[in-house]
Design a protein that fits this description.
With 127 residues, this protein is an alpha+beta fold. The protein has one domain. It contains five helices and four strands. Strands 2-3-1-4 form a four-stranded antiparallel beta sheet. It starts with 13 loop residues before the first helix and ends in an 11-residue tail after the last helix.
Length: 127
C-alpha cells in the first residue's frame, strides 16, 4: 500500500477492457477435451461434483444412450487433471476418448488396485 491515490487513466473503458481480458483468458486457457460415459446413477450427482453449470453442459452437449448412460464431452485443464477427476469418479465413469487418457486411467487404476489388492494389508506402501 502507498499513500498515493489510484487514478484511472483518461479514456480507460473498464467494461471494454474486462470483456477483452475475459475473451483472451478463455482463448488462451489450457484445455484438454475428453468424452466420458457416465452411468445413469451418477448423473444426478454431477452438479455436486462439477458445479451447477454442468446442467447446461449436459443439455447442450450430452447424449443419453439406450441404457440410460450419459455420453458427455468435457474439457479439463490438462491430461493429469482429467485423469485425477476421472479416477475420483470410480467405475461409474468410462473414458471414451482420448485413447491416451483412457490408457493413463487404466494404468493408474491398476496401480491403485495393486496397493489395495495385497490381501488388504495396511502399509503396503511403507515397504
Amino acid at each position: 500500500m502507498t499513500a498515493e491515490t489510484a487514478r484511472r487513466p483518461k479514456g480507460f473503458d473498464l467494461p471494454a477492457f474486462w470483456g477483452a481480458w475475459c475473451a483472451a483468458f478463455e482463448r488462451d486457457r489450457p484445455s484438454y477435451p475428453v468424452v466420458l460415459r457416465v452411468a445413469a446413477a451418477l448423473v444426478p450427482v454431477l452438479p455436486q461434483i462439477f458445479g451447477e453449470g454442468i446442467g447446461a453442459v449436459i443439455a447442450e452437449r450430452g447424449r443419453v444412450e439406450a441404457g440410460g448412460a450419459l455420453v458427455l464431452p468435457l474439457t479439463f485443464e490438462n491430461a493429469e487433471v482429467a485423469c485425477a477427476r476421472v479416477l475420483g469418479l470410480g467405475p461409474e465413469v468410462e473414458v471414451l476418448s482420448p485413447v491416451e487418457l483412457r490408457g493413463r486411467v487404466a494404468e493408474r487404476a491398476a496401480a491403485i488396485a495393486a496397493v489395495y489388492g495385497e490381501a488388504g494389508r495396511v502399509g503396503a506402501l511403507a515397504r
